[in-house]
Structures
1.
Amino acid sequence: MTEVKSRVQLLTRESQHTLTTSRDPRELSDTLEKIAAFLPKKTNPETQTPLAEKPEHDEFIQGGHYVHFIEFLVDQLSLEWYGRFSSEERSRRLFEVFFLDGFHHHSFLVLCSAITQSSPSFKQNKCLSLLEVFLRGGRMSDLIWDQCMVVSSDHTESMHSAKNRMLWEQLMTAIVTLPDRIANKLQDKCSSSFLPREYFTNLAKDLLSVFHKVYNHLKATKNCSLQFVSQLIGRICVNGHADTLFTVLLPHFVKLTMDDFIWCRICWRIIIGCPERSMESIMECLLKKIPWYGVMSRILGDAVLSNNKLNFLLTNKFLLLRCYDQELVPQNIIGYLADSPNRRPLVVKTLKTLLDVWGDSSAVKHTSYSQHAYLTKCILVCLSHLNEQERVLHKSVLMQKLLSGMQSHLNSPVPKLRRLGMITAEALAKTLDAEGPQLKFEYEADDESRILWSLLEPPEDPGMDWITKDLVAFSLMDDTKEEDPSLDQDKAKETASSTNQETELDSDDDLEPYDMSQDVQTSQVKTPMYIRDCIEGLTTKENRELTEASLKVAEKLVRARPDDLKEVSIAFVKVLLHLEDIYEIDDFPILRHSAMVAATVYCPVKVSEFLTREFYDRNYNIRQRLDMLEVLAAAAQELALPVQETVPSSGLQKKSRPLTSSAPNPSMEAEHWREIVQRRIESKTRRFVKGRTTPAPSPVANRFGPVAGHFFFPLLKQYDSKMNTMDMLGDDFLLLGRMLYTLGIVVYSAQHSPICRQMAGSLLELVWVLRYHTEVFVRQALLFALSMVILSIPSHLLVSELQDDMLECKLWLEDIIGKDPSVECRGLATQTLMILGSVVKKELNTDTK
């Protein structure tokens, strides 16, 4: 062995010396051919044995001579040295064969290292071209397959693994980071072969080739290992290329695992053999791409029972700590757990955990709506997979968890959250006791509610056609051909001809329809003409048409400002406040609200005092109190508008004067004559300084300023009072939040009025008292009120009289931005802080000037 080692070493040194000093192309090519005889693919065609002797061949491989020799070739590579070979010698590719037909893992690492360590030159370009040919020629598949081979002896296998652990780490790092390294080195001159999407797509195809070799090897009862492949896939997914990789791999996995246990075992070993730190990224990609949970069962088997990391991801993290828009993710997770008797206990366990989190009052308050909606979807998917035995066995426990969580949802100020609780309660009651009495809530049905109800039916197997079209559509795009425009024209002609035939057959078209556009629906009830008659019509309980007619004309009668409006305004508002929609009148809430707003606008003092007083009365429900707040806010906004811009809230406007008249108007003709003359004068006049082209707006008094105190202070003074029917500092925090919104609107509507400073100070004190409220809705209302204070008070007062208060508010806002669990609160705090900063900055810049 010593003689063989010395002989190979001497031959290698002599060859390197010749290649360095010789300029004879023939001598150079003979030297390269002499060393190329040691390469694994240089065999005798007749005996399929290496051209070199067996001991020398093994020594060249195992003694490290190959690595040193190709490193020497890369170091020698230059335009001058490569130019020593004649064109005939270069066509024989004696230089390239050492990198393309040698030991692939060594040549790959040497080429990658040479590219990253070299500067733009002939050497770098040559290595890039060799590496590109290496990738496109399927050498990466051979490289990975070489790492899958194992030996039979356990002892030697462990020694082999320990010896090659460092090599595996180098290979995986080089393979995964190659696109990034090439891009950093070449910038915008990078070849398309090294772009991430194309590179990892080709790598996925190489992996598929390796998997087929593994399948044939196992089918022939031979040993091989998937450890390197699993770790490589894990590294690729951790680096963010899971989507590109599994877009190629997954369709083949779906097809191959349908009726072959060996392929199921291969897929199982690939996924489960990945490192734990990459398991999350792999499973997340699979859950989003697998179209049916039955595929999950074929690929993973019962791995969730033996792999703790996978169990945590599927029963905890992906359901409780993550949020996905696709319903496919929870359907794949829960369906996989329910698809085997061994895994079914995890479904009930997961459902109980989901209900505990779903019903927790703290979770309802502090989680985002999207997260809570995703949690609801997971619960409904779990319900869809419960069998009859599980429903009977766990009925009492599940109903108890539901009832404890329903109160938290019904107390929520967010309508969408309340609807989630209602849908979940209805679905759970229907699932657990289909024959018994059913829960029924009133909520608005929309696309989201229909999606939630559809989750109670487990998805069906879409079949291979749908799977292939959805997951490998990218491979079909190249095969598609543009449609011939003439075909579209033929189709259009056929459609037109069929339409004409149908038109000819339709004999009813000869009849001219009556013009019914001007028809008006007649009513047997006379529309009220006076406001007292309107009140009487609203209080009538036996005549639907009279009540509807009175409600529709109520706002119009108030805005006509009759003489007795002040006398009957309170009675009018009181009747509307207690009016119920027992006849299901169209636009009932809008008509009722508009009429009360009109009464408050034209009798602001009397009606506002009545509403603020009744707001704290005992004989009203939450809906009526919310109506009072909405009326006060809308009336304040309308009163704050200039008279010329005030528009009735129901859209009822005075009829405009006709454009034409039967009798001529001399004043209109004179005005028309003056306009013509003025236009001619303007066209002939040349001005060097142009002043104001439009008249200055005429100042209009704020109608809301004198009465703003009646809207604000009575509403503020009793907020901390506790009654049997209302406790705003307790369970009725919805009223507290709406009241804060109303107070903010009132303050903003009263800006530039003398009382605004006092109102803003009182509201600022209330904000400071309630700033650490536990409810998200109340904190949002506090932030809104604070922003209204900042916008309403003159900026010079903010930096003088309220400087300390604003500094404290700034610290509070920064605290919310950094610590508040609600995303909405953090966003509102950021906006409010920006408003405060811009107002203060503007005032300081004004003072400096």
2.
Amino acid sequence: MQIPSKYDASQVESKWYDYWMKHNYFHSEPDEREPYTIVIPPPNVTGVLHMGHMLNNTIQDVLIRRARLQGKNACWVPGTDHASIATEAKVVAKLKEQGIDKNNLSRDEFLKHAWDWTHEYGGVILEQLKKLGCSCDWDRTKFTMDDDMSEAVIKVFVDLYNKGLIYRGYRMVNWDPEAKTTLSDEEVIYEEKQGLLYYIKYQVEGTNESLTIATTRPETIFGDTAICINPNDDRFKHLKGKKAIVPICNRVIPIIEDEYVDMEFGTGCLKVTPAHDENDKVLGEKHNLQVIDIFNADATLNSFGLHYEGKDRFVARKEIQKEIEENGQLVKTENYINKVGTSERTKAVIEPRLSDQWFLKMEDLVKPAIKAVLEDGEVKLFPKKFENTYRHWMENIRDWNISRQLLWGQQIPAYYYGDGKEDFVVAENLEDALKLAKEKSNNQNLASSNLVQDSDALDTWFSSWLWPISVFDGIRNPENKEIQYYYPTNDLVTGPDILFFWVARMIIAGYEYRDEKPFQNVYLTGLVRDKQRRKMSKSLGNSPDALKLIEEFGADGVRVGLLLSSAAGNDLLFDEVLCQQGKGFANKIWNAFRLIQGWEIADIEQPESSKIAIEWFEAKFQETLVVIEDHFRKYRISDALMETYKLIWNDFCSWFLEMIKPEYQKPIDRVTYKAAISILENNLKILHPFMPFLTEDIWQYISERTPQEALIVSKWPKFSNYDKNLISEFDLASGVVSGIRNIRKEKNIPFKDTIRFSVINNENTASTFDEVIIKLGNLESINYTTNPVDGALTFRVKSNEYFIPMVGAIDVEAEIKKLTDELNYTEGFLKSVQKKLSNERFVAGAPEQVITNERNKEADALAKIETIKASLASLK
């Protein structure tokens, strides 16, 4: 079989991926083996591959390929998330380009457009993951809007409602005016932003007096329904029972008293806007205040905003500032740092809004999930530091707002049959709903046409929190063979930014619906940052094109580059140079393989140097295997790769192959060759999870293989006892070889020239590696002595002294001239330093550190002169 001179990833990757797919290596069915299961964190169906996905899925593929090699029944379930907000926004934008307004479409018409979009663009990211080498069970690909997945979501909603855990409530919610939907508390990101504090005068009715109110949002004055003062504040006692006039709209509102008001903040007076602030809502309910909502769904002002109707809230804010300033009602403005809530999805500034929404009670549901992670250790977080974050979220949890004002998603299974707030039923389908409605209304004449289903969709996370269960149909068919076999899954790899959104909620769902953890271990990767520590993003232009990276460096090179920059649980600083290092590593291994394949094999005696080299490397391999296993146990994936990298680059390519390499144009003995191939194959096995394409390619070139003998389904190397002494003895021997090579280089002694060699063995080192040292150093022999060798070049390794007699080894005259020149230069340098130190003005005026540096230079020069003189003396 002709082996190409260079490794070309572009010619190899599709060939082996197609081969793996053709032979169904990625597919899993329940059998007698131990299962090893991973479910993919489902990326958005509209998404494309970015660096975070690359890292996350590379780690998952490493784990799944290793499990496969360990003989486990490896199952990696892929899929995508319907991403309600993101997908609906893209569909709406596309419709707009076509001149179609979403509001003019029926639900079914819009959903047809959404499905068309999904079929056209959805799954692109999964195809891109194949380019990276991800060995998912593509036959099991799931989508959170698949019929069976949606049915599971609806079933869970109905079950939780019947348990009294889901309720409908009129609450202050987080409103995203861009997506025009409510969000849960966890989907709001609070950022500190520079703003202004506006001091505005409110006229006290029937007097010339005014109150000054401090607010960050002057546009909300149209929703003011009271001014509140602290009853203990002597400054305002005379205003008890009076009324004030709201600027611009001139509405008369009561002045109320409540100890909630902070007398020290602002002016000590608070404007109360119950429709647009959570705390104001509480005050409003307590004092029975009117509630005035001044915003439309897109955060423009409605008719309550008078002549500002239809204007964006931020535009209106500037214009209102100008109007009240002209009216003499603006006292002053001050710079003010304010925490502003923004939408995690659209980045729009969140608007607090009163709305009827569906909520899930969390207080009792979270208890098993808290116990599992923080008390029993049934679910382990890696790194452990994230337990504190988990604890904070779970112990301060609020009810989950699960309804969204969107069309794309599972429609809430609530059916209304009357005008009252309680005139609804919750059921899995219209038929069941009609039966329940007839019972609840005591009206047998109701027809299905009298029922109207709630128009809201469920929060996307309400489907993905069931993911490890629903992908195996464990909600609809809780006793089926697959859920019984694959659940709980083993490892979950995801980002810490969705520890609460997704991870915690899956744990909650696991205990609620399986009475069991959904996974054993959660490995939380860091965020991908550039080498300047900036988060990678499109806006900064610092996020490389994932597919172009693969094209340039090969999938294996990119995988290595990502993992070399990734420390467990910490943000990783990505630099394309690391991908180049990965590509270089692939070339190094390829060239090593070609070197071995190029040797002629003969039935000749095995040299002692080769025999000991094989014994040493096999011991070194076993030592490394133990370290690698420990790293995998601790989810230190990058460290596991680095150990593998060092073993192959340093120990195998740089040392082992040199130790067994036959002399120029001479054959290698068959025993050594077979051992070298066996060692190479073991190296390929432990490297395969990290670099699957290169390793499979070399594996298949080594010999003709049946599909059952492919590397991807071979066996992980077994542990065996090894001689630790061999490893420590080689460490010393390699130091000796390096010492010999350094002297050869410094003294220009050609490698073809054999040299004599003596050693004082103060370490009582065994002679195990003497033949290796003789071969790699091209020595006549190794002479053990008890006395120093006069006139020899020397070096030490530990406390052993090594001697290379110079007679015949070097040009003595040339060496004397070189040392004399070096002596003259050093003596001249010493004089200049001593001249400075003898100058009293310099010593008196220079900083102490400068004087210290000069004295160190003097000492170094004196020591060097002594060494050079000793060397010259030995040559004469």
